[in-house]
Structures are given as C-alpha cells and as structure tokens.
Write a structure and sequence with these properties.
Radius of gyration: 21 Å
Mean pLDDT: 75
Low-confidence stretches: none
Shape: elongated
Distance between the termini: 16 Å
Length: 111
C-alpha cells in the first residue's frame, strides 16, 4: 500500500454516493416544514393577524427569522461541501457527480 493510500484509508470509508436521493425534497424535509415548524408559522401569523398589531415589530421579527435561517442553511451548505470533499472524495451531488471520484478519492488530485 502506498503512503497516499495509507493516508486516505482512515478518512474514506468506501461508501458510494446517494444517487438521486441527495437534495431538498425528502421525507425529512416535509416532516420539518409541515409538522415541526407549525408553531413558528402560528407565531408569525399572529404577529400580523393578532391584536395588538404592530407591523414594524412583526417585520423585524420576520427579518430576524429569515436572517437566522439563511445563516444556518448557508453554513450547513459550506460544511456539506467540505465534508463531501474530504470524506467522499468530491463535491456533493448538486455541485458534482454522485459517488466517489477516482481510486484514491481524497488524494487523487495529487496524481
């Protein structure tokens, strides 16, 4: 076994990509957005439909929710790219092809 292959062994576990499964609409997505976030939906609607009504404060709350959500999604997207490159040997499916790229996926770019 070469030195490069020995260095790649602890990181790369040999699993292939999830062809056609990776992406946004899965059962977990429907569960989170359809069930878990119902209290958040009720809270946002009550900011605008309830009494006393304060549109400025409601828009500030919506802005905070959008900013926090965007921060989490963008951060997890960047982390997913890093994990895909290091442990799976290539970029995740939306940016690259599914599955590992090459015989030695982690250090394959050196050859």
């Amino acid at each position: 076994m070469s030195t490069i292959a020995a260095l790649a062994e602890p990181l790369y576990h040999g699993y292939s990509g999830t062809d056609g499964v990776t992406g946004f609409p899965n059962i977990g997505t429907y569960l989170i957005f359809g069930v878990v976030l119902v209290p958040i939906y009720i809270m946002v609607v009550s900011w605008f439909a309830g009494t006393p009504r304060d549109t400025k404060t409601g828009m500030l709350g919506v802005s905070y929710l959008v900013a926090i959500t965007a921060q989490m999604w963008i951060g997890m997207f960047i982390l997913t790219i890093i994990i895909g490159f290091v442990f799976y040997g290539g970029l995740p499916e939306p940016l690259g092809s599914p599955g590992p790229t090459g015989d030695i996926p982690i250090f394959g770019f050196l050859f």
